[in-house]
Specification:
The chain has 481 residues and is α+β, with helices and mostly antiparallel strands. The protein has helices at residues 2-6, 11-55, 64-75, 138-145, 228-237, 263-267, 322-326, 338-349, 361-371, 413-416, and strands spanning 77-79, 88-90, 95-100, 123-128, 131-132, 153-154, 157-167, 172-175, 190-195, 206-210, 245-247, 251-254, 296-298, 309-311, 405-411, 422-425, 429-435, 440-441, 449-458, 467-468, 471-479.
Length: 481
C-alpha cells in the first residue's frame, strides 16, 4: 500500500483520460452547435427569398398585399437539413408576413408602421416559423456537467421592399376606366384624353400633369435653366433626356387645365409651331416626327401652319375608332377603325392599301415611314398631294418614329378620389400612346385640351428594367434588413 501511494507509474494515464473526455465533449458540443448554425443559415436564406418574392408585388395598388402573399406562398420553396419540423420549407405555414408603410432610419430600431392597406404597403418582413434542432451530444454533455443547455431554436427574419422608377417619361397622367383596366389588353384602341380641372371628381379619360416642381432637370438637356410655363412647354414638347425619375408608388398631380399649357406644346411633333412654340421651328430640340400626316394644311399656302389652318383637300390624318367618330362609345374606343381606314386609304393612296398587314394605326404609321426609307430619310411618304408626310415647316426632322409617342401614368382616379391637385398618388401602370392627330384646345384660359391617342401597351412591359426611347423603367426589389 505504501509503495502504491508513492508510485508515479501510470499517472499520465489519468490526465490523458480526463483530457480525452473533455476533448470528446467539446467535439460533440461543436457538432451540435454547428447543426444549429446550419439550420439558422438555411432559414435565413429562406426568409430572404420569401421577403423578396413578396416585396416584388408591392407596387402601391389595392391588391398588392394579396398578390404579395400569393407570390411568397407559390414561388418559394426550400429545404432545411436539421430541425424538429418537416425538412420542406414552402407555403405560409412556414413563415409570417408583416407589412409596413415605412422603416425607421436606424436599423437598430424595430419597425412599427404596420399596415394592411395595399396602397400604403412598401416593405414586408418575413419571419420564419421557429424550428428546434435536437441536441444529440450536447444534451448529455450539459447534463453531466450540470451546465445550462444552449438555445437550439433556429429562426430568421428579413425585410425587403419594392420601388419602380419611371425615367424620362412625359410628365402626364390620365384616369383609367377602373382598377382592372390593362393597357396590354387594349392595344389598338383609342382614347380621348381631356384636361381635368380643379374641383369635381375626375372621370375616365380626364388627364392632368405630373408635378414638374419635383423634377431635377438634366443640366445638359434642352430644359436646363427653364422655369414656369417655359419649363412645362419643354418637358412636354422637347426631344431628349429632360427629367429625373418618377416613383410609381406615389406621384404628385396638377390639373390638366393649366394656364400656359395649350395644344401648341404638343403639336411641334406634327410640324406645327404657333403660340408659345412660335419661333422654335428651327430648334432641333423641338424637331417634328418623321411622319406628320395630319389632314390639315396652312391657310393661304406656305410651308407652316400658323394661327389658322384649313382641311387638306386630298389627304387625311389617322382616323379615330369608328365608335368615337360616331360619338357612341364615350372617351375610350374599341379598336375598330375599319370605316376610318377605308377613308384614309381612299384619300392618301387612291383606294389601294399599301400596308395591309398593319393592324393598328401605330403599325400603319411605322409602315409608312419604313416604305419611304426610314426615319432619317427625306423621301416623301405621300406623292403629288397637299402633304408629303415629311416635315415642311421645320428645318429639322427627328429620325425616331416614337417622336409621336407619349407615356402617361395611368391612375385609378375613383379609388384615389382625384379631382385636381393631389399628392403621393400610386400609379397603376405607365401607358404608351401614339398621337393620331394634332392636339386641340378650345382657346379659353386655361384651355380645355383634347388629346386623341391610340394605346400601344404598357410602357414598362410589366417591369424588369424595360426601356426605350420614350422612357426607361427600373424595378428595384431589395433587402433592407
Amino acid at each position: 500500500m505504501q509503495r502504491f501511494t508513492t508510485s508515479e507509474e501510470g499517472g499520465i494515464l489519468v490526465f490523458w483520460v480526463l483530457s480525452l473526455t473533455a476533448f470528446l465533449g467539446l467535439v460533440a458540443l461543436s457538432f451540435d452547435i454547428g447543426r444549429v448554425g446550419i439550420a439558422r443559415s438555411e432559414l435565413q436564406s429562406f426568409a430572404d427569398s420569401v421577403a423578396l418574392a413578396a416585396a416584388g408585388e408591392l407596387d402601391g395598388n389595392d391588391d398588392s398585399i394579396t398578390r404579395a402573399r400569393a407570390a411568397a406562398a407559390n414561388l418559394v420553396s426550400d429545404l432545411k437539413t436539421y430541425g424538429s419540423r418537416d425538412a420542406a420549407l414552402a407555403g405560409d405555414s412556414d413563415y409570417t408576413l408583416t407589412f409596413f408603410s415605412a422603416l425607421p432610419a436606424s436599423d437598430t430600431t424595430a419597425p412599427s408602421a404596420t399596415t394592411t392597406n395595399g396602397r400604403a404597403a412598401a416593405y414586408v418582413r418575413a419571419t420564419v416559423t421557429p424550428s428546434t434542432v435536437d441536441q444529440t451530444f450536447a444534451a448529455a454533455f450539459f447534463t453531466l456537467s450540470g451546465q445550462t443547455p444552449i438555445d437550439t431554436t433556429a429562426t430568421a427574419s428579413a425585410i425587403a421592399g419594392f420601388t419602380q422608377y419611371a425615367c424620362d417619361v412625359t410628365p402626364l397622367m390620365f384616369c383609367i376606366p377602373d382598377s382592372d383596366w390593362d393597357a396590354d389588353l387594349n392595344i389598338g384602341s383609342m382614347v380621348n384624353l381631356r384636361s381635368g380641372g380643379n374641383g369635381s371628381a375626375w372621370g375616365p379619360g380626364d388627364f392632368g400633369f405630373l408635378d414638374p416642381a419635383k423634377l431635377k432637370v438634366d443640366g445638359s438637356g434642352p430644359c436646363a435653366g427653364k422655369t414656369g410655363v417655359n419649363l412645362d412647354a419643354c418637358l412636354l414638347g422637347a426631344v431628349g433626356s429632360i427629367t429625373q425619375c418618377f416613383v410609381q408608388r406615389g406621384v404628385d398631380i396638377e390639373p390638366g387645365q393649366k394656364v400656359g399649357i395649350a395644344d401648341a406644346i404638343f403639336n411641334v411633333r406634327f410640324d406645327i409651331y404657333k403660340a408659345i412654340m412660335n419661333g422654335e421651328k428651327n430648334d432641333p430640340d423641338y424637331a417634328p416626327a418623321p411622319n406628320v400626316i395630319k389632314g390639315i394644311v396652312p391657310k393661304g399656302g406656305g410651308a407652316c401652319i400658323g394661327n389658322n389652318e384649313v382641311t387638306s383637300p386630298n389627304t387625311k390624318g389617322m382616323p379615330r375608332d369608328d365608335c368615337l367618330a360616331a360619338g357612341t362609345c364615350g372617351r375610350f374606343g374599341n379598336g375598330n377603325w375599319s370605316a376610318g381606314r377605308t377613308e384614309y386609304v381612299n384619300y392618301n393612296y387612291a383606294g389601294t392599301d399599301p400596308h395591309l398587314s398593319a393592324s393598328t394605326r401605330y403599325d400603319y404609321y411605322l409602315a409608312e415611314i419604313a416604305a419611304a426609307g426610314g426615319g432619317g430619310s427625306s423621301t416623301a411618304i405621300l406623292s403629288g398631294l397637299a402633304e408629303t408626310g415629311r416635315p415642311q415647316c421645320s428645318s429639322n426632322q427627328s429620325p425616331d418614329p416614337e417622336r409621336r409617342v407619349i407615356i402617361a401614368a395611368g391612375i385609378d382616379c375613383g379609388a384615389n378620389s382625384i379631382g385636381g391637385a393631389a399628392k403621393n398618388v400610386p400609379v397603376k401602370q405607365f401607358v404608351k400612346m401614339f398621337l393620331t392627330e394634332p392636339v386641340g384646345d378650345d382657346g379659353t384660359s386655361p384651355p380645355t385640351v383634347d388629346i386623341w391617342a391610340e394605346i400601344i401597351g404598357r410602357a414598362d412591359n410589366g417591369g424588369a428594367g424595360a426601356g426605350g426611347t420614350g422612357g426607361v423603367f427600373h424595378d428595384v426589389v431589395q433587402l433592407y434588413r
